[in-house]
Design goal:
265 residues; Serine Threonine Protein Phosphatase 5, Tetratricopeptide repeat; mainly alpha
């Protein structure tokens, strides 16, 4: 059927992700992604195209079950492998999940984006471990930093949606450490400072830090150190008194490594 009317009613906008939710003819919610030459429609659960390969939720799930049967029969994974055709099919399926996690991220469904990015990272690991062809073992690795970044961003945004900025910041910091470790393992330390993935996550970490309320005592300690360094002793004395009051008469000297001793003069 000609989809021209759909495309005309929903113009493509270059430079942004054009995505929306609809209710399908089956009464279930679908996700649509507008591309320059058409529309992608995806299921919200299971495989994006709604197909169950060999009776499994996904092709990856099918091959993982084959691996488990192999291990049960032979006692180990030795001898199990993925052909070039297997890997090509898995990569094709991975593209479907890529489109969906991109769409769900834009729609603010971060929990779904976390699931789908983790699924694709699992597929990368599976191909790297069992592909017969060396190229199939490595071709997906160029995409790993990006998928890791999207996974971390989705986790952080999900935590922020639950008013948990410290949890979000912890997720971003771990993501930065994991990607840095990946680059070091590849011998590409230069990418630690130059990659877009690291830059995006560092910016996100800064934005999250700004959302975390500063502890009153920590704020006073910072102000006290600044006043002392600028020799504003009258202001420093006031700050010290406020800090002592909050700290149960704890001496300000303990807080600033003895620098406050000079305030008495």
């Amino acid at each position: 059927m000609d989809i021209g009317s759909i495309m005309r009613s929903w113009p493509f906008k270059p430079g942004q992700v054009n995505v929306r939710r609809i209710i399908g003819d089956d009464g279930l919610e679908k996700i649509q992604l507008r591309l320059d030459l058409g529309v992608l429609q995806m299921e919200t659960a299971g495989r994006p195209d709604g197909i169950e390969p060999h009776g499994h939720a996904s092709l990856l799930s099918y091959y993982e079950s084959k691996l488990q049967r192999h291990i049960q029969r032979y006692g180990s994974a030795e001898g199990f492998s993925l052909s070039q055709a297997d890997c090509e099919s898995l990569r094709g399926e991975g593209i479907m999940f890529y489109h969906r996690y991109l769409a769900t991220f834009v729609l603010g469904d971060y929990e779904s984006a976390v699931v789908d990015t983790q699924r694709n990272l699992r597929m990368f690991d599976f191909c790297a471990a069992y592909a017969e062809d060396e190229n199939d073992r490595h071709v997906l690795e160029q995409n790993r930093p990006y998928v890791m970044m999207m996974h971390v961003r989705a986790k952080a945004q999900a935590a922020l949606g639950k008013k948990q900025p410290r949890r979000a910041l912890a997720a971003v910091r771990k993501g930065l450490a994991d990607i840095e470790e990946l680059f070091r393992g590849l011998g590409r330390e230069d990418l630690i400072d130059t990659s877009r993935e690291m830059s995006v996550l560092r910016t996100l970490a800064g934005e999250i830090r700004d959302q975390i309320p500063v502890d009153p005592k920590t704020k006073l300690r910072r102000a006290l150190r600044k006043a002392i360094s600028e020799e504003q002793y009258e202001e420093a004395a006031k700050l010290r008194d406020q800090l002592n009051e909050l700290s149960g008469n704890e001496t300000a000297g303990d807080m600033v490594s003895g620098e406050a001793d000079g305030l008495e003069g």
